[in-house]
Structures are given as structure tokens and as C-alpha cells.
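pinned: reference chain
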Amino acid sequence: MMDSIFHEKQEGSLCAQHCLNNLLQGEYFTPVDLSSIAHQLDEEERMRMAEGGMASEEYRTFLQQPSGNMDDSGFFSIQVISNALRVWGLELILFNSREYQSLMINPINEKAFICNYKEHWFTIRKLGQQWFNLNSLLTGPELISDTYLALFLAQLQQEGYSIFVIRGNLPECEAEQILAIMRVQQQQRPRLIGEEEAQTSAGRSAALGHTEVGFGVEEEVVDEDEELKKALALSRQDIDVEDEEADLRRAIQLSMQGAVMSNKASECVVRNVKSGGPAAGGQRESQNETLTAEELRKRRQAYFDRQQQQAQPSIPQHDAQSTGGPGSANTGPTENQQQKPGQ
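pinned: its C-alpha cells
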């Protein structure tokens, strides 16, 4: 049912044409028709000015001024609209005039209104039992309730609009016949024509903005990954250094343990040799290993002695002799054990 309502959308600055056609519910006027009415009005004004004398200063000034009824953008004056409606037997009355206000007519009892602000014109018309805003700047007709109509007109007046009441019989139309039988309900109000384009462009800008932010986040993530990799590499280097130091400490401990074990093994080899134990080949290998371990032991012993001498300058000699005592004491029993088989 809403599709049955004739609604011309804005094209250029032809709002006066759209206003008239939406009021009459059909393509009744073209820019050429309104231009002809404007030229006719200009000629009538020129003839009235010429009555005062064509040589007068006022007349020459009038000829130099542009038309007040139309311009190149497509704007038409209230006189053009009034003359166009007069063809259909319709009359314009100023809504806030004393003459009309004295009548105290409820707006819902009227048939239509024409509203003008600066160079924009639009129609509010009653179709059937319902009111519609037929502004050419909207994407479609806007349903207006009876209670909201008076508030809407008051709001337009506060915004500076001039409102004209349409008096006379409007031509019949399809929407009037359909809406006279049934009422319509509007689920979603129409938007301004520029509003949809603005939202579309805003949506595209927002999408581009999200894409740029996405790229920025990816770059930040890449930078964080690279920094994390560098940190892991440095930590691994530190771990490697710590591992090397730990391995070195373990090697020193093992070498010291090996030296102790070698000393014990050398003592055992010496005892076996003196007691006539293993074969000659095994004695040579043991002697070679004993010499190597012995040299290591002597070098470490010399290092420890130097450390002790630095800490204690004077060391008694009887301590050194006492350390060699047990060695000589141990040889005694070994010799006695070697002589016993001879006996």
C-alpha cells in the first residue's frame, strides 16, 4: 500500500517541482512548465515597472537584476508555486497568519500543507485517513500520526519554515482510493537520501580503519615475536655459559677424584710389585699409569703447598717428617712378609 503513494526523490535543486508533483500525486509539472510560469511572472513585473517610465532609474535597475522567480539551479519562488496550483483551482494560505489562526482549525482536518525553508520545498499530505511526509529528501513517504502532526508543524515553525495550507479540491489519485479503505503501518521510517550514502561511506572508512589497525597489530606481533626470539637466544647463550661452567666444575671434581683413585691404585701397584704379584707386562703398564698419576699428584701437591706457604710463612719440619713416618713403617711389615717364604 505504501508503494501506491507517488513520491518524487530529490534531483538537483528541483524541490519545487517535487513538492508540487508529490502534492498532486503525479508527474504534472516539469522544469520547463515552471520556467514558463516564472518567465510570465517576470514579464508581468516588467510591464508594471515600465508604467513608471522606461527611462526611469528604477526601471533600468530592474532590468539589470536577475529574475526573482527562478534561477539557474532550479529554484522557483512561492509566486511560481502559487500560480501553478491556481491552474488546479488550489489556493495557498499562510498557516501562521492572523486570518487563519483566527479560524482555530485543527490541522488534522486540513488536506495538505506546503513547507518552505530558504530554497527547499516539501509537501505534507493526507491520504485516506492518514498523514504522510512526502519530503523529496527522504528515501520514501514517512507516516505521521494525528497526534504528532501538530507537534511536527510546530517544530518546523521553530526551525524557521514557512507553512502554507492548501485549500481546494485535490485531484483524485490511486493512493487516496486505496488508503481510504485500509490503514497502513510503517515498520521502519525512511532515512534521508544523504544519510544512507554517509553511513555506507562511514562503514567503508571503518572497515579500512580496522584493516589498517589489523596490519598495525600484525606488525606489533611480528616485532614482539622477534624480540622474544632474541630474548630466548640470549637466555640460551646464558644457559650455555652456565652449562660450560658447570661442566668445568664437574671436570675438576672428577679429575680430583680420579687423582685420589690413581694415588690409591699406585699404592696398590707398589705393594703388588714388592710382594711379587702381577706379571711384568702388567707392571709396566701400571708403572706408566702410576707415573702419570703421580706427576699430577705432585703438581697439585706443590700447588697446595704454595697456597699453604702463602697463608703460613713458617711450617715446622717435624710435621713433614711425621707425614713420611707411616710410609717407612708400612715397608717394615712388607719386608718381613717377603722374608718369610725364604725361611
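why pinned: The first strand starts at residue 91 and ends at 94. The two ends are 143 Å apart (CA to CA).
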